[in-house]
Amino acid sequence: MRHTRIIVTHYGGLDALREEECPEPKHGEVRVRVLTAGVALPDIMARRGIHPETPSVPYTPGWDLVGEVERLGNGVSGFRPGQLVAAMPIHGAYAEFIGREDLERAVDYFRQSRERDPDYAPAWAGLSQAHASQANSGFAPLADAYRQAREAAEKALALDPRLVDAHLAMGWIHMFYDWDWEAADTSYRRALDLEPGNAQALRHAALQATTLGRWPEAIDLATKGLERDPLRPNSYNNLGIVFLAIERDTEAEAAFRKALELDPGGAGRHLHLGRALLLQGKNDAALQEMQQETDEGWRLYGLSLVFHALGRRGESDAALAALKEKYAGEFANQIAAVHAFRGEADLAFEWLERAYAQRDGGLAEIKSGRFLRVLANDPRYKAFLRKLKLPA
Q1: For residues 279 and 62, which has the higher predicted lDDT (pLDDT)?
Q2: Quick check: 218 and 187 in contact, CB under 8 A?
Q3: Does residue 28 carry a pLDDT above 90?
Q4: Contact between residue 273 and residue 256 where contact means Cβ atoms under 8 Å apart
Q5: Exposed, middle or buried by CB within 10 Å (0-12, 13-18, 19+), for 103?
Q6: What are the residues whose beta carbons fall under 8 Å from the beta carbon of 228, sequence distance 6 or more?
Q7: In 10 A of CB 147, how many CB atoms?
Q8: Residues spanned by CATH 1.25.40 within the chain?
Q9: Are the CB atoms for 89 and 106 separated by under 8 Å?
Q10: 303 to each of 255, 293, 335, 355, how far by Cα in Å?
Q11: Helix (H, G, I), strand (E, B) or coil at 56
Q12: What is the band of 294 on the pLDDT scale with cuts at 50, 70, 90?
């Protein structure tokens, strides 16, 4: 599969554009699969060399994007393949993938915009989202990056209390860093009150409802988000996660197959389908999917599960050992799920505590995770939910 981006070789018309291969992520970088990128007049002005923030050529255009982490470079922690991110790199979104330098540029450009007009609320909201993306990507110290994200979001809200992006920025902080579900609810509900059809707001609110186990609401929001963005693979993936959580496994399988059809090389696509098959007892089919998973971390996680289900203990042990050796910083929650599925409760709780210490964003999926749910009768499970401030 080719990984490409658009390059502006000189200022001018469409003849200035060419396609080239995206580089592999360097140390400390991630590569993001771009799912949606904005197209606007400033892009055209920059390509012609007449925009006040026109970069030097050659460069990749594109001011904003939504995407998923596809691959991690060496030395990256606190981030995992398949994780949803949003960013405003100012330049670089016209690509299948972006990396660390794009987020650094995004922060820099938003700061410049803020300095030129300190009362421009969208710049503050964008700066908040950029800092949060840096934190989620492991590109900046977690606490410091989220502190800056919070300060920027608060400033955006103070300047424009009706700015949807500002409420979404604050909701993301509450959900993935504070684990303050009530505050996240407030932010997302306000965003939807202001703009009921906003696809991003619907997706974020659906994630929040899934986290809290509000299944009918999660399905409704995810379905509405899908209707407004039917070509987005993760719209189907999110719906499949809800279906899988409530044991509507055949519907989950169908949703995951659609996501895979739209994005056959995407990280986690085969893994999600494989889990749906595994939970239906279709172990051989699940193994085929896990073996085709494009991301190594997700593949090792899936193989750890399916080899155990097939009674191939040695192969399950080997896959789990490799997962721990290579991805303990990003997959602590998934490692806990494997131990739970294998009946190793003490090890499962040990890795859950490690995920908590690392502020693993995957813990937001604990109530929807069927493999961890086997721990539900253990008093430590309800205690851990209370620790996360989740309903038991």
Answers
A1: 279
A2: no
A3: no
A4: yes
A5: buried
A6: 197, 199, 202
A7: 15
A8: 265-327
A9: yes
A10: 21, 10, 12, 21
A11: coil
A12: confident
Average pLDDT, the chain: 84
**Cα–Cα distance measured from residue 3 to residue 76, given in angstroms and rounded to the nearest whole number:** 21
Give the model's pLDDT for residue 279.
97
First to last CA, the chain: 44
Of the chain, the percentage scoring pLDDT greater than 70 comes to: 85
* 105-111 average pLDDT score: 77
Can you tell me whether residue 92 is helix, strand or coil?
Answer: coil
CA distances from 5 to 94, 120, 182 (A): 6, 30, 40
Q: Is the pLDDT of residue 140 over 80?
A: no
What fold characterizes domain 265-327? 1.25.40
Q: Residue 119: what are its φ and ψ, rounded to 5°?
A: -100, 10
- Angle between the N-to-C axes of helices 313-327 and 296-309, in degrees from 0 to 180, rounded to the nearest 10: 160
323 vs 13, residue with greater confidence = 323
Residue type, 53: E
Cα pseudo-dihedral 71, 184, 349, 370, rounded to 10? -80
| Rg of the Cα atoms in the chain | 21
Pick from 114, 206, 117: which is nearest to 153 by CA? 114
